[in-house]
Specification:
With 308 residues, this protein is mostly helical. It has 14 helices and no strands. α4 packs across α5, α4 crosses α9 and α13 runs antiparallel to α14. The radius of gyration is 20 Å and the shape is globular.
């Protein structure tokens, strides 16, 4: 079957598109069975969809496939050079242990990249788009960032340790495919040993919550054990409130992807000192120098100060 598919389309995430579409359709069908999409308090009901929100998520995912492909194409030259000329050894691509090392190693690096994305504002400016939906469903899983630069930087240790670049890219695609199914409210908690080791819908719902007790928790991609080891794990104790702490208030995909970069630029331009400028770029989302904090900040400034 693979032979009938053009070589450039054999990327795992592209091959998974029919699966994504099927799961999305099933969840849309389930959502359509609901009598209403919002509770009496105005919050989206579990598993609900809003047409404009889902459309924005899908379009952001489509663009992300293209930007990621360009980023990986450029990174391939660097990875190949590191693998061929710098790595102290080269793991054989046909051996099972190479794939295990690549898969687990990439998820470990994903954990730290994800954690950095929530604690360094410049990186958060790219990642916040994924958290911008107030709905939690399979469409939200497709709401991906367009700037993969931080990911490509974080994967550098793998080719340096002799993991073939093809394995690195394939393992990242498999990592993303796994994360698709955890974006749903239709699955509760699962078998306890599985919940202890693996990322699940329950764990990832916490990560998308804007509630104070849920902020900056459960960064894991495939495995949740790294959160348990490094102290960022939080169990789900109540249904989260999804979205950003300060909603962007639009379904324009360009604004959703870039508004935080605009805020960073605005804050840096108005910062009075070099320290303040650096703080706005490399400090955590929502950082501000104490002497210049004001209650009447611009509505766009820090509009995504933390995931909601």
């Amino acid at each position: 079957m693979l032979d009938s598919i053009p070589e450039q389309l054999r990327e795992p995430t592209v091959l998974a598109i029919p699966f994504f579409a099927l799961m999305l359709g099933l969840e849309l069908f389930a959502a359509a069975r609901l009598e209403q999409s919002h509770d009496d308090d105005g919050r989206p009901r579990p598993g609900a969809y809003r047409r404009e929100d889902a459309k924005a998520s899908i379009l952001m995912g489509v663009v992300s496939i293209g930007t990621s492909a360009v980023g990986k194409f450029l990174a391939l030259f660097v990875y190949a050079a590191l693998f061929a000329y710098v790595a102290p050894w080269q793991l054989p691509i046909g051996s099972w242990y190479t794939w295990v090392i690549g898969f687990v190693g990439l998820d470990f690096l994903f954990y730290w990249e994800h954690r950095i994305a929530h604690r360094v504002r410049l990186v958060w400016a790219s990642h916040q788009a994924h958290h911008s939906s107030e709905y939690y469903n399979f469409a939200t899983a497709l709401r991906q960032k367009w700037n993969p630069t931080m990911s490509l930087i974080m994967w550098l240790p793998l080719p340096l340790l002799g993991v073939p670049p093809a394995v690195v890219f394939a393992c990242y695609s498999l990592n993303l495919i796994y994360q698709f199914w955890v974006h749903t409210e239709h699955i509760g908690t699962m078998w306890r040993p599985f919940e202890f080791v693996m990322n699940t819908p329950s764990h990832h719902r916490v990560h998308h919550g804007s509630d104070p007790e849920y902020l900056d928790r459960n960064y894991g991609g495939v495995f949740i054990v790294f959160d348990r080891i490094f102290g960022s794990f939080r169990p789900e104790t109540h249904r989260p409130t999804y979205g950003l702490t300060k909603p962007v208030g639009t379904h324009n995909i360009w604004t959703l992807e870039t508004h935080e970069y605009v805020s960073v630029f605005r804050d840096v331009r108005s910062a009075p000192t070099i320290r303040a400028k650096l703080g706005y770029v490399f400090g955590p989302p929502g950082w501000a120098p104490r002497a210049t904090e004001r209650a009447d900040r611009s509505p766009l400034s820090h509009s995504s100060g933390a995931p909601r």
